[in-house]
Amino acid sequence: MAKAQNDVKIEVGQVARLTICRQARRNALSAGVIEGLIDGLKMLGDNTEVRAIVLTGEGERAFCAGGDLGDQLPEEGMLGMHRVRGQFAELILSMRRSPKPLIARVNGHALGGGFGLVLACDLAVAADHASFGTPEVKVGLFPMMISALIQRSISQKHAMELMLTGDRIDAARALEVGVVNQVVAAAELDDAVGALAERVAAHSPAVVGLGRQAYYATEDMSLEQALRMLHSQLTINTLAEDAAEGISAFLEKRDPQWKGQ
Question: How far apart are the first and last CA of the chain?
Fold first, then answer.
């Protein structure tokens, strides 16, 4: 099932898909796109059929070119623009809080806020013609908000080079510095994303969701704080019905039948 909402197409299935549909604007982030992505993540997160979510852009040129510099000023003026920028933060937090794994299908340029979307996903597969970067400094801006993601994903020297120069890196370099998991020819992108998504979707959705959220919840904790929290999360994990099913299936040499509980 596919549903269009605020320049975002939502396709529901075991591997669901969110597509930014603003090809003429290189899939730039408007207020409507941000709202549509937040709503789509909520809808798919609540759907028990969904095991993984693929995020991509329409066409072959751009995944997402970042914020739309040509977007009209909201009726509320500059305070309204401040509110819209705050919605981008809510989008990133919605991605982090999603109970379903997120996979970026990088079909072209991922720049500025679009680069941030790639980094906010759990996994990323890029076409070999894709490029990545934070060009904001070239127009007198700094990638303030996505720097929170950059510093959590890339080493300091690589991060500062991107942000201070505004230069782009190609897909091969993005793979080297850990921005993406795979780089494939454009013609192979859907097959590669599909294969990766199916591998993720094959596991217990309950356990994957629990583990994913524990991982992000502890990333800024001290070692002791993280271990204390993960200790309790492990106990919760062992009480799940899918944990018992997984162990039984292993001992009985059969495929597990996940209940998502």
Answer: 25
User: Which residue, among 66, 95, 68, 64, has the nearest Cα to 81 in the 3D structure?
Assistant: 68
pLDDT digits (tens, 9 = 90+) for 29-51: 998 999 999 999 999 999 999 99
The answer on pLDDT for 3 being more than 60 is no
Which class is 2-201 in CATH? alpha beta
In this structure, are residues 91 and 37 in contact, taking their beta carbons and an 8 Å threshold? Answer: yes
- pLDDT recorded at residue 142: 95
- The reported pTM is 0.93
Active site residues: 136
Q: Which pLDDT score, from 0 to 100, does residue 68 have?
A: 74
Task: Report the interhelical angle of 205-217 vs 241-251 (nearest 10°).
Answer: 120
| Domains of the chain, residue spans | 2-201, 205-251
Nearest by Cα to 179 from 111, 88, 233, 245: 111
Tell me what pLDDT residue 81 has: 73
- Domains 2-201 and 205-251 in one fold: no
Reported as a single tens digit per residue, the pLDDT across 66-109 is 987 666 556 667 777 777 788 999 999 999 999 999 999 999 99
What backbone phi and psi angles, to 5 degrees, belong to 9?
-95, 130
The CATH code of the domain at 205-251 is 1.10.12
In 8-93, beta strands by DSSP E: 8-11, 15-20, 52-57, 62-64
Backbone angles phi, psi at 15, to 5 degrees: -105, 105
